[in-house]
């Protein structure tokens, strides 16, 4: 009896584990990143926001515009300041556009 309960428990645990793994794969698959070229208008380190005047973003059918992007938690902004031209990578997360990488344009 105890052996049967243990087997049932292990099977239920494995089902939940696999369901969670499948759910996480679909979340990561839908999180598409995009690349752009922009001129930095402003960086607010306290709020974690960068205002960029970006060129068209073809992957999203966006025309050129100026907008605020949230700066990802692990993104390093050292040496980047207003009026610098940059190349940046971003993704949409929880309804916000989040910069995941940024570097000076050459």
From TrEMBL:
Protein name as it appears in the record: Copper binding periplasmic protein CusF
InterPro entries associated with the record: CusF_Ec, CusF_sf
Species this protein is from: Nitrosomonas mobilis
Top-level taxon: Bacteria
């Amino acid at each position: 009896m105890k052996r049967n309960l243990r087997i049932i428990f292990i099977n239920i645990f494995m089902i939940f584990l696999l369901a969670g793994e499948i759910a996480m794969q679909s979340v990561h698959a839908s999180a598409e990143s995009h690349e752009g070229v922009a001129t930095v208008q402003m960086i607010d380190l306290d709020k974690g926001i960068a205002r960029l005047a970006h060129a068209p973003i073809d992957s999203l059918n966006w025309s050129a515009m100026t907008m605020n992007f949230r700066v990802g938690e692990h993104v390093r902004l050292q040496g980047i300041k207003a009026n610098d031209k940059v190349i940046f990578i971003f993704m949409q997360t929880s309804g916000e556009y989040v910069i995941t990488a940024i570097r000076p344009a050459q």
